[in-house]
Amino acid sequence: MIRFGTIWYSEVEIVEEKAIFIDPKFRNAKGGRAKKLCDFSKSIADYFKKPLIIGVLSNFRTAAKIRMYERTFGPPSGAYFLYNAQTGQPQAQADQQQVMEH
């Protein structure tokens, strides 16, 4: 999912990648689907001559995702921190945790 917009502190228009998801049954397929989606995001930013903001906001396989992004986009610029939150849980596990908390 890609959107055009601005960051809350600037009026500079950006391309923002909101989500890259590869169904688990296709993750080991030949051709590097996640990298192709990253390359597509870069091509949109290049075509429109806009900065691309893309990142990993996940607690699941985070290191592997970061390595892929670094290979594709270069070194990171900043970091996200979550307090009282966790991301990247499989939906069934997240639903079970929510039931247990109530």
Structure description:
The chain has 102 residues and is of the alpha+beta class. Helix content is 38%, strand content 12%. It is built from three helices and three strands. The protein has helices spanning 33-48, 62-73, 91-101; strands at 2-6, 13-17, 52-53. The longest helix is centred in the middle third of the chain and has 16 residues, at 33-48. The chain is globular. The chain starts with a strand and ends with a helix.
Largest sheet: 3 strands, mixed
Fraction of residues in helix: 25-40%
H/E element string?
A: EEHEHH
First-last Cα distance? 32 Å
| Strand order within the widest beta sheet | 1-2-3
Strand content: 5-15%
Total beta strand runs? 3
Layout of strands and helices, then pairs:
Layout: E1 2-6, E2 13-17, H1 33-48, E3 52-53, H2 62-73, H3 91-101
Parallel strand pairs: 2-3
Antiparallel strand pairs: 1-2
